[in-house]
Amino acid sequence: MADSANSARGDLKLASVTKSYGDFTAVDDLSLTIPEGSFFALLGPSGCGKTTTLRMVAGLEEPTVGTIHLGSTDITFTKPYQRPINTVFQNYALFPHLTIFENIAFGLRRRGIKDVDESVNKVLDLVELPHLAQRKPTQLSGGQQQRIALARAIVNRPALLLLDEPLGALDLKLRRQMQIELKWIQKEVGLTFVHVTHDQEEAMTMADTIAVMNEGKIEQMGSPAELYDNPKTAFVANFLGQSNLIKGTLVGTDGDSLVADLFGQKISLPRSRSHAADSSIYAGIRPEKFRISLLQTSTSGNLLSGGKIEDVSYIGVSTQYQVMMPWGQELMVFEQNDDGVAPFRIGDPVNISWEPIFTFALRGDEDADAGTEVVPEDLDEE
Amino acid sequence: MSSIAKEVIVSRRPLGSSLSRWFGKNLIRIYMALAFTYLFIPVAYTFVFSFNDSGKSNITWQGFTFDKWLNPCGAPRVCEALGNSIKIGLLATIFSTILGTLIAFAIGRYAFRGRSASNLLIFLPMATPEIVLGASILSLFLVLQVNPGFWPTVIAHVVFCVSFVVVTVKARIASLDPRLEQAAMDLYANEFQTFRRVTLPLVAPGIAAAALLAFSLSFDDFIITNFNSGTVTTFPKFIYGAAARGIPAQANVIASAVFFLALALVIIGQVVSRKRKVY
Question: How many domains does chain B have?
């Protein structure tokens, strides 16, 4: 039985998985399919259940309800060592008493493979650290330990590689570099990677598909572009990047577009980007999609007039504006510094315009601040 | 004001302050030298008098000789006592280390009913005065109609050594990252392989320290041994008995040898761990 589980291949399927600790539900009726060969990210704030989900897939926790399948094999209750799944742990968890070589060879030796030299050396070459084979983990830098942890996992050629905040302990520059490297290694070895992170930028950079998790449930799943351009909930709209959410009402249709009334001003939006349940909506527009113009300038697309520049921050590639609208809401606008237009000044009366296609609509009964005030992750989240 | 004060100090410096500066720099060393002198005078005394060309009593200096070092078993029954101490020490160490390590794992790793109570109770033999512990164990043996002797002494030693082993090993287990064991399981090691390949090697330094501690406690013990050993003479008991008549210089030889052996072990340990770079 162990053998059949160990040789399982295919898509990972979680079906109605729930994990409760007493009264607390960490993961709530989660169903998810991760296609073989993809780079999949589980993204969410601290305590959203993403690490618990990962641990259940690894076999370090058992679901309270639900099943986990790898291909056609049920692995819900098999032991961690009976699964063809390896993990890159958050703090690497390299064995301090073994050399780097033996750390990497650990999994191969446990599976009874005698001749480990070639595989270990090959993977050491892949992570570009062949000269460290005889060192002990404590003699390595954080970035080097991270790569060895990765090497120790992929040398086993698992059906699934789990990465639990693997870059969390690295500084920003190294993290950026490792993001690109991880993506490259995933392509190179062709394994399925499941990456858990709270860093939306990291998830967007690396993953083919992202599942945004909140309070034990998946809010939305899709490609980075889908999630960013067409979020279904306020949480996703705010957690991935920033959004302006403006309260409004749907008042009619116009071909493939819907017409909405935002505080007396009519705008249109694509029907395919409306997730409203009834006529009450939040119209969402990303700050970089807005254009600011002086009152007399003619514009195309949607227009909201009557704004006043409240604040200007120049940040090099772009300028960030806070624009106060007549209904008392401050909108955020990012303008590229690429047109000769002189920056606007505080107090300037302006209009705001944008292309209708960049509008999405959320349910009007949502909490418009969901996902905005996410506390910085403490790395030792369980 | 400060500039004046500075000037005063500067102008005084050549006069008498060089001595006080020397003291300021070396006070800690002087203190250390005095403390070590205090600690090592008895050891030095024991060592020096192991070369005493004495007869029955080894109190006054009679002249230098290597005889006692060349014939450490020369005094009646001294080596028999030493042998008993070593045998009892080794047995007590083996049993208490195995038992204590298992208890430490149970308390350190598993949640079970009575865990915190066990955690507290394990300190009891450490906290109980030896004279009380020794007398209680003896009365227990007498109630069970077991005569004092070699094995009752071993059992009594295991009782107090276990506490020390548990405390030492538990500290090591507490500092062990549970993720290392999870990583091992993740890398295809089953429960036994995980224990054998990861847990045990990482806890081993703690177990070794506990075993050394247990042996030295057992080897050293007089009070509990005196209650429970009956006619069996251990090295501490021999010294105590001999003290009335005059301790033979062979006892000094053996004590010195034990001291230097322990010292050598510590030094070797330091050198090895420095080479290996401890984690």
Answer: 2
